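Whiteboard transcription, Tuesday session. T.W. wrote the structure tokens on the left side:
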């Protein structure tokens, strides 16, 4: 294959992967791979319909593995897994579960950074569908608006409840905070353990993965250092 053909193929593959956004579908999103790749018909089924379909398919997976679903302990598993996927661990794929955020004026005139640290989250790796367990630390410097503290945690949980890669999770949290708080001044740092790295494959039980995003004033060295100091990093 000539170099140009290789480049073209790469572009085609990437384009297919990132065409569909969870906010909007359109060409303007080609290149904005911050969005979870979603099918065009992603929101057509009700939760009940999704659960029924996943139950059916999961039953088939278990039977293919050789399990006898007449066993008392196993017979409810396909339904349990389906409900867990739709209502719990992948509930962040559905915008109806996005946390409602009320914005308040910064009447306290607090203009230093606010850090919400050690937000424990459970996500799942989109390559293997096994858990990612980690801590997210987020910070913002108000541009005149503030939100309730718990909403910072809720935003982290919403995006964690999707099949994820850590880089995208980091960027989705940062982008949402920038939108909600109407400021570029956002920092996000995630330190997480990927069970696909520790419990299988390379089986490295000690390594963790750190990703970060620094926007606006956090791009200045002193501000970034202050944020990291609060995290004891
Ligand atoms: N960049 C990135 N990679 C991830 C993340 N979670 C898991 N991975 C990696 O995704 C890769 C998938 O690689 P493949 O070679 O296709 O899969 P695999 O054969 O199961 O790879 P091994 O885990 O090395 O056995 C692995 O290296 C994972 O460690 C993540 O959040 N970000
Ligand atoms: Zn994985």
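and on the right, the sequence the group agreed on:
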């Amino acid at each position: 294959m000539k170099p140009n053909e290789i480049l073209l193929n790469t572009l085609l593959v990437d384009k297919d992967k990132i065409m569909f956004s969870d906010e909007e579908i359109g060409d303007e999103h080609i290149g904005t791979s911050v969005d979870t790749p979603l099918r065009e018909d992603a929101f057509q089924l009700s939760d009940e319909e999704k659960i029924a379909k996943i139950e059916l398919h999961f039953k088939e997976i278990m039977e293919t593995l050789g399990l006898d679903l007449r066993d008392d302990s196993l017979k409810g598993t396909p339904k349990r897994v389906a409900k867990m996927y739709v209502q719990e661990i992948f509930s962040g794929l559905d915008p109806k579960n996005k946390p409602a955020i009320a914005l308040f004026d910064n009447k306290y005139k607090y203009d230093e950074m606010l850090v919400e640290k050690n937000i424990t989250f459970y996500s799942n790796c989109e390559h293997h569908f096994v858990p990612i367990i980690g801590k997210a630390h987020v910070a913002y410097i108000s541009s005149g608006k503030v939100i309730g503290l718990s909403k910072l945690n809720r935003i982290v949980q919403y995006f964690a409840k999707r099949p994820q890669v850590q880089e995208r999770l980091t960027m989705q949290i940062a982008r949402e905070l920038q939108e909600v708080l109407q400021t570029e001044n956002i920092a996000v740092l995630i330190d997480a353990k990927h069970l696909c790295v520790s419990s299988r494959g390379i089986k490295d039980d000690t390594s963790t993965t750190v990703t970060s995003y620094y926007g606006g004033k956090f791009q200045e060295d002193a501000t970034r250092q202050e944020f990291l100091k609060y995290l004891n990093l």
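Someone added at the bottom: The radius of gyration is 20 Å.
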